[in-house]
Amino acid sequence: MLHLPSLKQLQYLMALEETGHFGKAASQCNVTPSTLSSSIKELEETLGVQLAERNNRSVMMTALGLEITNRARALIQDAEAIMEIAKAASRTPLSGKMTLGVIPTIGPYLLPKVLPALKTTYPDLQLYLIEDQTEQLITRLKRGEIDAALLALPYEMEGVSTAFMFNDYFQFAANANHSLARQKSVTLEELAESDLLLLAEGHCLREHALEACQLPPRAQADNFAATSLPTLIQMVIANMGVTLLPTLAAGSLASGAENLFLCPLDPPAYREIGLAWRQASHRTDEFHLLAAALTPNEVS
Amino acid sequence: MLHLPSLKQLQYLMALEETGHFGKAASQCNVTPSTLSSSIKELEETLGVQLAERNNRSVMMTALGLEITNRARALIQDAEAIMEIAKAASRTPLSGKMTLGVIPTIGPYLLPKVLPALKTTYPDLQLYLIEDQTEQLITRLKRGEIDAALLALPYEMEGVSTAFMFNDYFQFAANANHSLARQKSVTLEELAESDLLLLAEGHCLREHALEACQLPPRAQADNFAATSLPTLIQMVIANMGVTLLPTLAAGSLASGAENLFLCPLDPPAYREIGLAWRQASHRTDEFHLLAAALTPNEVS
DNA sequence: TAACTGTGTTTGATTTTTCCGAACAATTAT
DNA sequence: ATAATTGTTCGGAAAAATCAAACACAGTTA
User: Using 50, 70 and 90 to split pLDDT, how confident is the model at B139?
Assistant: First the structure.
């Protein structure tokens, strides 16, 4: 590794070129003339070149000295630009690139509600979205492929910090002709006697729904497990069974579905929506800001 | 005056980004991991920004860290460019090592005349000499084995720049008892009727002499082709034929040779002596200085 | 002429910074 | 469990940067 001139030396050189005077250059740099003198001398030695001719009465930059001074000026400006970028980034939270993972049972229903406002609040944020299941998102989070993830909690994970955003209540969903339809609410006992349809394995909603029913996790023995919420709803409308629907998704899924019955649970049950990021990241403040910005008004 | 990051810190950052490993980055920079660690930490503090997430098992650059690393890389390159410029300039007064190729029909006759003065003018120049024929010298020049070459021109070559030094006039050389001896000059017609002796193939002097006689290049059909100028002269003295001798060499070759007759050509003919170097080299100024320094006073 | 003034440089001491080595903490591999 | 790897912390030593003061030199002034 080669021995480079120091930025300080280059700054001294610039001051010397500007003032044409060691004393003035020194005071401009808040050092004594002796410091500046020896600094310039050392710079000349490391470069192997005379930068300024000086007799006791005047300082005259060499042609080469002038050339090098100009390059030094550009160099210092670039260094200051780095400082500027860092400062701007630290005082402008949520700016620059960020990759956000989202699970399929949140993304399509939450993001349309909050992204427009997010874009307005943080115009310098370039958000890239990745949709995948919780397990994969956590893997990619730890690999650094994504910076944060919108997940449903609780979920077992190490080395990950989370910020709670809001509770997403479950609603009972059934065909309008189902025996439990037209009730104001549905109890767990009533639910237990129904054919409960679930999402396929890998979707955390499956576990969370079972947990809401106070049922133990079960292997995918169902003959019919939906691979997406819209599919699941179609199965319910076809009266193949009932299901639990997160309120977050219920609105858009139920719109236009004539034969779908929805009602709350008694007692209420919910999953928690939150933002997750690597514990090692020191951008906790930023992620809390992001979590707040991704929380829809109606539930906050 | 703002507190800038040091170039060393930026180099450490680059190494960290390249290796993704504090230990490897440290050894790449010839420092201990502790130094690198605290250096990066300090850099992060002066910038007020986290540059790399590090968990005891892996290092992961922040988006901002990557951005800053790239800018740092450009910065370091600019700093190195300054070094380069200075080094190139400090070489201007021909200092340091330089390897010079010379052809056999120039070296022994020109160099003794000019090297003493060269040594005085450029005491810091360490000149290494390589004697070989033009074709080989050009090959070695392009390979970078030599920095410049003293050649006789014209010569067909690509990617090579040349500086003209002086004209080297041909003299007619014959045995003192030759029918053309005692003339004030010799014409081309007279020359054409003589037995012209030449150097062996590969010596450019062979081609240049033929060209001076306005004769086409000829394959080496001669029964007797000399492999050096002293040998050639001996053949002339032995009255085996006549030849054309460059003035540069004539003096030292003729001294002490009783039976040798020399006279100019009518019209005069000459070869050009010049210095050649790689076109890609940016040391044009230096080579022109060298060419001037290698030109003897009597012909300049 | 001789002292004076302004200037860059040298010098020696002092302060500051840098750097290493060892111990440490945390994690993974065996 | 034990060992190996890796980044970090800490204290002291080495290196450097810096200062203040003395110095050297050239014009200028008295």
Answer: confident
Residue A119 lies in a domain: yes
pLDDT in tens, A161-203: 899 999 999 999 988 887 777 888 888 888 877 788 888 878 8
- CB-CB contact of B83 with A122 (8 Å): no
Residues 27-66 on A with a CB inside 8 Å of B are: 29-30, 47-49, 64
Residues 193-252 of A with CB under 8 A from B: none
Within residues 49-88 of protein chain B, the ones with CB less than 7 A from nucleic strand D are: 54, 56-59
Residue B54 to residue A1, Cβ atoms within 8 A? no
Domain count, chain B: 3
Last residue of a domain, one of B90, B119, B142: B90
Of all residues in chain B, the one with the smallest CA distance to A68 is B82
B260: enclosing H helix or E strand: strand B260-266
Which residues, including other chains, have CB under 8 Å from residue A45's CB and lie 6 or more apart? none
**Same domain for A26 and A160?**
no
The alpha helices in B213-297, defined as continuous H runs, are 229-237, 247-254, 284-293
Residue A18 sits at the chain B interface (C-beta within 8 Å): no
Interface touch A4/B47, C-beta < 8 Å: no
Distance B39 CA to C20 C1' (A): 14
Instruction: Let me know whether B79 and B138 are in one domain.
Output: no
pTM > 0.85: yes or no: no
Q: Domain check: are A12 and A150 in the same one?
A: no
Q: Are residues A288 and A147 in the same domain?
A: yes
Q: Is residue B2 part of a domain?
A: no
Between B163 and B201, name the one with better pLDDT: B163
Residues B218-274: tens digit of each pLDDT: 665 666 677 888 888 888 888 888 888 999 988 887 777 778 888 888 888 899 999
B55 and B45 co-located in one domain: yes
| 3-class SS of residue B189 | helix
What range defines the domain where residue A64 resides? 7-91
Whether residue B111 sits in one domain with residue B82: no
